[in-house]
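thought: fold this chain, then report.
action: predict
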Amino acid sequence: MALKFLGIWPNTPDDGSPTIWLEDTTGDLIIQSWKADEATIREAQQVGSVPGHSTDIPEHETVIRLPANMLQFIPRPEGKDNDGGHSGT
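observation:
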């Protein structure tokens, strides 16, 4: 596995800041961020995803909260704006 550093929380004041890496071989994003609180997890479970899919979170997974200012570090396909799809609005 070869990770490429993409970005860290701007002006980070400490060692526990959200950070994003790209796994070069698979294109997977590796994200360190804050765990979502219980209220957020319950809301996500109530909203669900696709019909028939469990809303339980498996032991090998977690729910994180990625701050909006970290979206700037997520790679976009060539020619696409890097603003989360909000250009021109």
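thought: worth noting. Confidence is low (pLDDT under 50) at residues 84-89.
final: tokens above.
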